[in-house]
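Example record used in the benchmark description.
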Amino acid sequence: MKLSKEQIKHFKEKLETEKEELEKDLKKIGRKNPDVAGDWEVVPAELNTNPADPSELADTFEELENRSAIEDSLEERLGFVNKALSNIKKGTYGTCSVCKEPIAIKRLEVNPAATECV
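Model output (structure tokens):
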């Protein structure tokens, strides 16, 4: 069953809210890459470390790796959300990208950025 205008509006609002939250979370650990549109870069945490202390330096690198993993996950989800918003504009939102059948409403409620049915 094709989504109604009200349902599409509902999911668009959910996606826009999630996009705002993802961007807010990304800003806490990184910044937009000025050289690549839509890309984010991790910014090291403000740590007062003594570079001569190997354990403090290791902690700094570990923190950067953790931030990088979080950034990758958030950026990937943001890509899915942006794709779903683009699909709304194109009129293809809610259609499985594999079988071209409608995606179940329950699935979209759980994951409004879903592009495939179950």
